[in-house]
Design goal:
Helix content: 25-40%
CATH topology of one domain: Rossmann fold
Strand content: 25-35%
Strand order of the largest sheet: 5-13-12-6-14
CATH class of one domain: Alpha Beta
Radius of gyration: 17 Å
Number of strands: 14
Structural class: alpha/beta
Number of helices: 7
Largest sheet: 5 strands, mixed, barrel
CATH superfamily of one domain: Nucleoside phosphorylase domain
Oligomer: single chain
């Protein structure tokens, strides 16, 4: 079984229409949609926006069942020089907790440099970066490349960046890129990745680009397009997977 996590119902409308059959249960106070997509058993959960919602939702899910993988899907903002435009796709090589730390006169200092672990797993884990599962990435890249080519959009791989306060200016975006080398900004992914690391469950994340991260101008955003392209790519990925083994 594969777990699919999105912040909002608007980011999974196509997936939920495609679920067959579909059973709705409760999980951590949220609806959990159970069914099959492209012959794969899936559990689909809406976490709500932000790191707290994402962490609590995935914790509740992984306390009730252990999927073969957790896939985050949704929308994100493309950073300058990422080469991504609205309607393109971003696949995470890793997730970065970008604003867990201290702002000092000399600049931002993350918890690892301060000596505070964000995770205890056989000892303190001194990192703010959580890698996507290597095997999942190896399987996903050619399938998603093909899906992007068919859709006429670009797929980029790189670090995705999770924040509590979105970057709403060009200056803030450039500073975040300097600190993280990220290609895409969101508000949930690293929280899910951290919980998956704690429970030792493989993690993957795919986002459609809804906007460029610069001086905020909603007239240039397209959330429905970003959500649709990400869902269609995920469906293509699930359809193209080899016969189920570990991740079934």
């Amino acid at each position: 079984m594969i777990a699919i996590v999105a912040a909002l119902a608007a980011e999974t409308a196509l997936l939920r229409r495609s679920l067959s059959p579909c059973e709705v249960r409760r999980c951590g106070g949220r609806e959990l949609f159970l069914g099959c997509l492209s012959g794969r058993k899936v559990a689909l959960l809406h976490s709500g926006i932000g790191k707290i919602n994402a962490a609590s939702a995935v914790t509740a899910l992984l306390e009730s069942r252990i999927p073969g993988a957790v896939i985050v899907i949704g929308c994100g903002g493309a950073y300058p020089e990422s080469g991504l435009e609205v309607g393109d796709l971003a696949l995470a090589t890793e997730e970065v907790l970008a604003d867990e730390g201290v702002q000092t006169p000399e600049g931002f200092v993350d918890f690892a440099r301060l000596g505070f672990p964000l995770l205890e797993q056989g000892g303190p884990v001194m990192t703010r970066r959580f890698a996507a599962d290597a095997r999942l990435l190896e399987e996903a890249r050619p399938l998603l490349d093909h899906a992007a080519e068919v859709a006429g959009v670009k797929l980029a791989m790189g670090p995705l960046v999770t924040v509590s306060t979105c970057s709403g200016t060009s200056q803030a975006a450039l500073e975040m890129v300097r600190r993280t080398a990220g290609i895409c900004e969101n508000m949930e992914g690293a929280a899910v990745a951290q919980i998956c690391r704690l429970y030792e469950v493989p993690f993957l994340e795919l986002r459609g680009i809804s906007n460029r991260v610069d001086n905020r101008d909603l007239s240039h955003w397209d959330l429905p397009l970003a959500a649709e392209v990400a869902q269609r790519a995920l469906l293509a990925y699930l359809k193209g997977l080899q016969p189920p083994r570990k991740y079934a």
